[in-house]
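Changelog note: in this version the structure field was regenerated for every chain. One regenerated record is shown below for reference.
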Amino acid sequence: MDSLKDTEPVRRVNFDLPQSKHQKLRIAATRRDQSIREFLTEYIDSLPDE
């Protein structure tokens, strides 16, 4: 359990999307062989630090 001390606390992000936008997101993630979580995390990581 010592490794858990070194991890950053997490926050859950939950929001509603219209079905069409969810499908668009799912397709984009699938094309990269990623889950939606992986896809969004990679996008967020690409944003500049401010």
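Spot check on this record: The two ends are 32 Å apart (CA to CA). DSSP finds three helices and no strands in the chain.
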